[in-house]
């Protein structure tokens, strides 16, 4: 076989179809006909010399070769889009005032900021890492151009805000949960296994300082399940919450996104912990028509989050 050069458009169709779960939706997103996208996929498989997709029920799933190509497709598309943005945006100047929540900062900022800085070296970024309540307030006061935060009540009619993704909230405990001998945890498991009696020890909660929408979600969920609870640790610092959770002081509630190694999600099987709802990761712009640097950074943040979720969230 001679040298193969993959076509960026074919890789974009391939990647978009996987991301949307349908190549018909990918065709609509990319402004092409379904037959054109199908022809691109056939040519991509022909170039690869191996099937990239296989039937699974009524749908399709990636083969091992498809998984490998998809990972490279993401990198090639990112580099291509970065090159286009760099060529078109070399003269962009000014600043972008960006707000992020703490768990997003560590997981999202390095990649997105690196790509943005290479494409727009003359644009200055001023970052604010804070709680969702603080970020909303600063947006309202005109102190931020762009913010990404977890939201429980996203307004679909809000033209300034996009829903980046939705993830389920999870109960979070220490990574070495099996070795945790705290009385509240032993009782939680004992009652969950069907032992007679109710919880005598309230479920200890590790939460962000008020105001925080997760506090109400968690306590309302526990009360509806008839389970006692109490706050054992509160802080405005997410790092402090992780430390308290890791030490076994109590349970925290977050999404599985951006968890540090010393904590982990808890399987509810064998416990009395109730199911929790989903939460939306929102991206809000201060203006419905943002300046080009703001719009580009918003796109990079969205791409980085979605890629991070594919890699890290089970």
From TrEMBL:
Origin superkingdom: Bacteria
Keywords attached to this entry: DNA-binding, Transcription, Transcription regulation
Coiled-coil annotated spans: none
Ranges for domain HTH lysR-type: 21-63
InterPro entries: LTTR, LysR_HTH_N, LysR_subst-bd, WH-like_DNA-bd_sf, WH_DNA-bd_sf
PROSITE patterns: HTH_LYSR
Single annotated GO MF: DNA binding
Protein family per UniProt: Belongs to the LysR transcriptional regulatory family.
Name this polypeptide is given: DNA-binding transcriptional LysR family regulator
Annotated source species: Rhodoferax ferrireducens
């Amino acid at each position: 076989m001679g040298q193969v050069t993959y076509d960026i458009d074919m890789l974009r169709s391939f990647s978009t179809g996987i991301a949307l779960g349908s190549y018909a939706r990918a065709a609509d997103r990319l402004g092409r006909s379904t037959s054109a996208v199908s022809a691109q996929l056939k040519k991509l498989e022909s170039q690869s010399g191996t099937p990239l997709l296989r039937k699974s029920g009524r749908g399709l799933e990636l083969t091992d070769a498809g998984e490998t190509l998809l990972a490279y497709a993401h990198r090639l598309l990112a580099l291509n889009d970065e090159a286009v943005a760099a060529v078109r945006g070399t003269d962009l100047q000014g600043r972008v005032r960006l707000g992020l929540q703490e768990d997003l900062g560590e997981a999202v900022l390095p990649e997105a900021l690196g790509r943005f800085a290479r494409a727009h070296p003359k644009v200055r970024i001023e970052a604010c890492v804070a709680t969702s309540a603080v970020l909303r307030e600063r947006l309202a006061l005109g102190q931020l151009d762009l913010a990404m935060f977890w939201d429980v009540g996203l307004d679909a009619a809000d033209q300034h805000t996009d829903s980046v993704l939705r993830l389920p909230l999870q109960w979070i405990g220490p990574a070495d949960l099996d070795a945790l001998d705290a009385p509240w945890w032993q009782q939680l498991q004992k009652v969950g296994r069907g032992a007679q009696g109710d919880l005598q020890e309230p479920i200890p909660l590790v939460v962000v300082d008020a105001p925080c929408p997760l506090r109400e979600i968690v306590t309302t969920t526990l009360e509806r399940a008839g389970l006692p609870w109490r706050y054992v640790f509160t802080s405005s610092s997410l790092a402090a919450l992780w430390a308290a959770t890791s030490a076994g002081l109590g349970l925290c509630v977050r999404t599985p996104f951006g968890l540090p190694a010393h904590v982990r999600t808890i399987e509810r099987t064998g416990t009395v912990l109730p199911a929790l709802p989903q939460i939306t990761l929102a991206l809000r712009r201060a203006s419905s028509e943002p300046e080009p640097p703001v719009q580009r950074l918003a796109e990079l943040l969205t791409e980085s989050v979605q890629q991070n979720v594919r890699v890290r969230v089970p």
